[in-house]
Structures are given as C-alpha cells and as structure tokens.
Amino acid sequence: MASSLSSTYLFGSPSRYIQGEGALAQLPSLAAQYGTIPAILYPPELPQYIESFKSIFGDDTFLIPFQGECCWDEINRVINLLSDREVHFIIAFGGGKVIDTVKVVADKMGKPTFVVPSIASSDAPCSAGAVVYTAEGQYLEVYATKSPTCVLMDSRVIADAPVRFFAAGIGDGLSTWFEARACLRAEAPNVLGGRSTHTAQALASLCYTLLKTHGPQATRDVAEHRVTPAVEAVIEANTLLSGLGFESGGGAAPPPLPKRPTGGAPNHA
Questions:
Q1: What is the pLDDT of residue 255?
Q2: Largest Cα–Cα separation, the chain
Q3: Which residues contact 218 (CB under 8 A, 6 or more apart)?
Q4: Of 64, 151, 186, 261, which is least surrounded by CB within 10 A?
C-alpha cells in the first residue's frame, strides 16, 4: 500500500518517563527487566552522586568519566571500553552532551538507554536525536537514534544544580510551541520526518503555558535549592513537554542546525 510522508503522522517518545524527588531510588526496579549490570557515563565534575549509583547497583557498576565532548572520538572510546565487558544497559548521568553520547553508544551496541539528567536545561533527554560535534566543539551532525528506554528526572538533583541551567531550559522550552505551530502552519514535517499530531501540538502549547505560569517562581525556588510544585511543573515542561513538542511537533531552526544550544558551561556536560 503506497504512502507518502505528507499523509503520515509521526509521534515519538521514551518508553517510560519518571519524575520526582528521590526518583533515583526507582532505578533498580525500572531496569530489572533489562539486567543488573549498568555502565554509567558521567561528568567527573559530579562525583557526589557516584556513590549513590554504586549503592544502587553494587560493585559491578562500570563507571566511565565523560571527557567533555559528544564527538566520534569520545563515542568510539566509550564503545571500546564496553566492548569486552558484560553490560546490560547504559545510563547517561549528566547534561545534554553526556546524554547524546550515550544515545549513540547504546544505538551502536544495541543496549537499552537510561537517561538520568543532572540538569533540566534542554529537550535532549526525551528526544531520539543526538547532536554530534567535532572534537573541537564545532557542530557536525544530528545522529538519529531510538527514543530512550527510560528518562528519570530526580527533582532533588535538578534543584541542587546551578540555577542558570534551569533558566536556560526555560528559555529553550518557551520556543517549543512557536516552532511547532510554525511547522504546522507551513505544513512542514516534524523532526521525525512525518506530520505533526494534535497530541504533539497540545504538548507544545502546554509547555508554553506551564513555563509562563510557573517559570518565575520555580526559578526563585531552584535558586534556593527547593523542590516545590512550581519546580516540578517546570522540570516537566523543560524536559518532557519540550522534548516531545519539538521532536514530534516540529522545530523551526533551519537544517542542519540543532534546536538546542551548541554552547554550554563546562560542568554538567
């Protein structure tokens, strides 16, 4: 039966999304169906969380410090480290570049991907694409992967991160609805290559509404490292709604430019 992109609606999402204070404790039960031995890629600037992961998964946990850039050198380095080890799934703990590196590594190795962001600064966690750079940090390409197996947002971890990352996520998320609406009006394909669904448009609109309603208060709360209903609403908007809204609704940045910022602070990767 013949079909065309213009008549095909596409919507993508992670298999599971979990959010809340202390959500890290749910990782073992969420990962149990995939195995018990993880590899964890993490930025070395966040050693305070590594003992938590070791206590959750035990001494078999394979910890890999991230070397700072989502580039093919780093991707291949991680693949080589994992190639002769028994690893059941891969966890990305950190910011967008750590997450995107793990997406590509897991895709190449056929492993489940668990995304545990340390910041709520972009739509990277819930999207299937990975932005790959040169080793010098110049944009190279978007690598199409599978949607993550699971995205887990521990609100305590997010609230303890520098507030500038949280604010950056609000700025990124506020554009989601306008870009999705522009793609719909122009009858342009979404990031997945199909037409936008009503669901994707509704999520993009809700992202904007939550950020306008709760963004100022949530930013003040995170500056004081408090987890509040406003903070929870903005974490959801920055991560889940922005990710699904941009990928399935449509991004208006001209190709091949990625939607999320290509720069960034050195910590949280």
A1: 44
A2: 58
A3: 166, 170, 228, 230, 231, 233, 234
A4: 186
